[in-house]
Structure formats: C-alpha cells, structure tokens
Specification:
By secondary structure, the protein is mainly α. The protein has one domain (2-61). The chain contains three helices and no strands. Helix 1 (2-21) crosses helix 2. The protein is flat. The two termini are 20 Å apart.
C-alpha cells in the first residue's frame, strides 16, 4: 500500500505539471480534445492503457 500511494502521488504531480506550467496551452489542448471523434479518443485511451500494462509488467520482471 505504501508503494501504491507513492506511485499515485508521483502520477498526480506529473499529471498536474502541464496545467501549472502551461495553462493557456492546456486550454487549447482541451478544445482540440473536445473536437476529436469518440473513436479516436478510445483508441488513444486503449493504447495508453496497454502501454501502461506493458511497462508495469516489465517493471515487475526487473
């Protein structure tokens, strides 16, 4: 549980960094995301989830 909370905290820092550093650019990105078709967003989401699983699996093997 301690490791999970540590990882969760780091993820939150990484996720929040662009909003803190580049708020204007993030607004533009959000507008672009709203205009994307649902299928494209699903493909991006699935690809990111699959990559995360692969990275986690590799990390556990090392």
């Amino acid at each position: 549980m301690e490791f999970f909370l540590c990882v969760l905290g780091v993820v939150m820092v990484i996720e929040g960094l662009p909003y803190f550093a580049f708020p204007e650019r993030m607004k533009e990105v959000m507008r672009a995301v709203i205009e994307m078709p649902d299928g494209t967003l699903r493909t991006i989401g699935f690809t990111l989830m699959a990559a995360g699983i692969v990275i986690a699996y590799i990390g556990r093997m090392v």
